[in-house]
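User: Structure tokens for both sequences below?

Assistant:
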Amino acid sequence: MASGVALAMTAWLPTAHATPPTNVPTTAADFGARWLATQFVGDGSGNKFVPVAGQPTTPEPSNTMQAALALAAAGVEEATFDDAVDWLKANVTTTITPGGTDNPGRIGYLLLVADAAGESATSFGGVNLVTRLNNLRQTTGANTGLFGSADPTYDGSFRQALAILGLRAVGQSVDSSSTTWLLGQQCAGGANADDGGWRSYGGSTCDGDDADTNSTALAVQALVSVSNTTYSGEVSDAVDYLDAAQESDAGFAYQPAYASDPNSTSLVIQAIIAAGGNPTSATWQKSGGTLNPYTSLLTWQIGCSASPSDIGAFASPWSSGAPDLLATEQAVWGAAGAPFPLNPSFSTPTPAPCLP
């Protein structure tokens, strides 16, 4: 989806992974960012974008934004990050209007990029992103407060959280109707596995299999960005839901009962940290303390026995052990321990994996 919902709910058999190149999460983030930097291509004017798979001259704006955020989260590959920001500024209109209509999730991502780059959110490539996003907020009807008029069934909570995070990243207030809409998607008041979790979008009740870890993780970050005290109860309930949803390998699936994957695990790591927790604490440990969300995440990173061009990327359940672009982008966010909004510091060179 344009707003970046990570995963579909498909059963799969776990892939056997080679030994990852490091067991240090921040170093793994650096390695992942190093691989991502190799995926950018030039546009002929010094700017860089991530192309559509199999189409090396066709830009893919969503991946360009998410990969740029990964570089910022890791705090490495600053030159590539700057080139990507320049491309996004030069192509801001096509970036935020897939299909010719402003997309709130994309604007949210772009606001996060603008903030990480220290760019003006009210004149990003000549466009006032704040105004464009606020103009998408519904002001009447059942979905008052929701950003965007598209059917929210599959991405409502995710895009709403992205929009809120983008506004907060650049220091803007959020209309109370928008947080109210997001809060309305949290499952509560019953005794089932959904309680405390966020669903993408739904009716008035949750029946046990509506909530998902991805929507929940991003909603937590959005609410914390608005106020780390006002919504402490809702955030606490969400953390309880995530605790109950954790898999035996200490990772997370899109929904409980599926095997864990790197995208979901990374997003939950971000949420744990945003909520004031520590992914390595006893709460999140499995197997007698030997496993935690970071160890699960890092098992997906491609190690030193692979082709040199693949080392550092993250595979996914759907990539048969090969690099997965979206998985790598989102895995770096969590491995870096960097919830949104980011506060990047490009202070160290990118280390090369697998050196003797």
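Moving on to the next sequence.
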Amino acid sequence: MIPKTIIEKQLTALSASLAPIREEIFLWAEQNIFLKWGVLSRSKFCCLECAHVWKPSCADTCAKFTTCPACAGKLKMMPYNQVHFKETEYFAVVETCAGFQVVRMVIAHKHMKKNFTPTYFHKEVMQHWINSKGEVRTLALSTNVFSSTLDAWKFYSLLEIKPKDFIRNAKYYINPFKVYPQMKTLPILKRNGFKTSVYDIAPHLLFASLLSDPISETLLKSRQLNLLQYYLCASRQNIRRNWQAVKTVIRNGYKISDVQIWEDYLELLRYFNKDLSCALYVCPDNLHEAHDHFVKKKRELFRKKKLQDLRLEIEKAQKRYASDKKRFFGLLFTEKDLSISVIENVRDFMTEGDDLHHCVFTNEYYDRKDSLILSAKMGGESLETIEISLSRMEVLQCRGMKNKPSRHHRDILRLISENLHQIRERMKKKKKKTKKELA
């Protein structure tokens, strides 16, 4: 994009004046952001870090990790044997320039081959420029729009200014694996509570929020780091709505173990008209037990007092639910005995909540427009309930019995990730039909 406004021309000129990232930073990245890998080839261990090859004393010693006798590195074993291996990570360098906070994003590739030491490639792909008001403008390399990956950077292109709506692009939310520890930050950031750590939050998101949003500043200064991470990183959160309860948490120094469960718990407290400024309710000793208690209480209330009304509500809700989500009905992902399917009936939401003792029905997840709810089953028994964001196409929650992961949790997440494209295709078909109807 050609810079047109005064600020765009200023940032383009300032970006060109930045010094290249130093070699010592690249060396730090090579030593700190990558794993050390090993591979078992022809009954021999090959260290992909120092190229040492040795034969194990026992064939059963091949585990997930082993130690190289030459470089003493703890090697993670490759699950497969091939000639070339590659690992990719991002890291960030934090600087200041002309009153702006600058976050420089660098992609790093580690190329490995048996019997050779690894080689590295580093390239700065993005710069976030943040002013003292928390406004962010970004410069980035071009990407291959026909690629199936998000970050197919054209390394031969130049950093160019992006429009303001670039904030809606998924590339904007890339979170570096590590940040170079020698950071230069604006004095106002230190005043607003920032010290030395970004707490696994993308630096530009943290800095922009600290400069523009008093909620982030309050959460950071009160050391409510779980709430801060959830507030800035979760695609669906209600920290502002629950601010009265958050203040109660801060006053009592209460640490929330699972913020998603805590917010669901607050919805239950609201349903029963409990005081959200009362620490007895807001700061339970055992969050999961308190959550389950009110879920059970609400479920019993539904069954005892409103059984007939509940039937009518389910019928009305089924019509709304079918109208919103009918295009996803019939989706089924299977792998061996594991099957994941879209929940097609509101009554099944109640069954799912009863079987797994969670709040997918009592908190009316079927009415969430942006959410698609699926059920993972094995042998006809429910294992976990999955909530997917349709706008961001990501898994928001995946919870089993009493909101805890089942022993098949990883397989379920992997199977969902491998089949997200099918959900995306159903959404595209709906859009095409809508366009034809309008035409």
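User: Anything stand out in the second?

Assistant: The chain has 14 helices and 16 strands.
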